[in-house]
């Protein structure tokens, strides 16, 4: 009986460790970055569309999140992470890493510039969304595989 409990415990420990390792997989880390950027864009979009009132704290937080995650994003593309974990990364990323990184850097720089001159109202948030959205869209066209 003790043997069965030990085996079950060891199995549970191994399964738990596997899920922790999967969470640290580059594919998962970059998906987390994209989810955070998407959430921040959603917050800005709600303000731009008038669904939420303008709130400078929300705008600043969203722009900070975009800048931080865009800077981090290109670090999660080692050569051995081209597949797995439901990745939507195109092989073109590894073929054009300099361009890919430059695009992420531009998104981060644009978000940082908007932070320095924080959009002051709904209309300004809408303009900021156009700038940031153009960055996202151009990168997704080239470097994202649509599943």
TrEMBL record:
The keyword Transport applies. GO terms for molecular function: electron transfer activity; heme binding; iron ion binding. SUPFAM superfamilies: Cytochromes. The keyword Aminoacyl-tRNA synthetase does not apply. GO terms for biological process: electron transport chain. Residues 1-22 form the signal peptide. Heme c binds at residues 136, 139-140. Pfam families: Cytochrom_C_2. Keywords: Electron transport, Heme, Iron, Metal-binding, Signal, Transport. Binds 1 heme group per subunit. GO terms for cellular component: periplasmic space. This is Cytochrome c556.
């Amino acid at each position: 009986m003790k043997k069965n409990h030990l085996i079950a415990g060891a199995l549970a420990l191994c399964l738990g460790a596997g899920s922790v390792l999967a969470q640290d997989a580059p594919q998962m880390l970059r998906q987390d970055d994209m989810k955070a950027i998407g959430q921040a864009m959603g917050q800005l979009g709600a303000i731009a569309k008038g669904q939420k009132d303008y709130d400078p704290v929300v705008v600043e937080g969203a722009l900070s999140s975009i800048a931080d995650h865009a800077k981090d994003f290109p670090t999660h593309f080692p050569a051995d992470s081209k597949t797995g974990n439901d990745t939507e990364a195109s092989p073109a990323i590894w073929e054009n890493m300099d361009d890919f990184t430059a695009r992420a850097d531009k998104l981060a720089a644009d978000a940082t510039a908007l932070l320095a001159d924080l959009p002051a109202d709904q209309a300004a948030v809408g303009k900021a969304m156009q700038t940031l959205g153009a960055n996202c869209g151009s990168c997704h066209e080239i470097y994202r595989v649509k599943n």
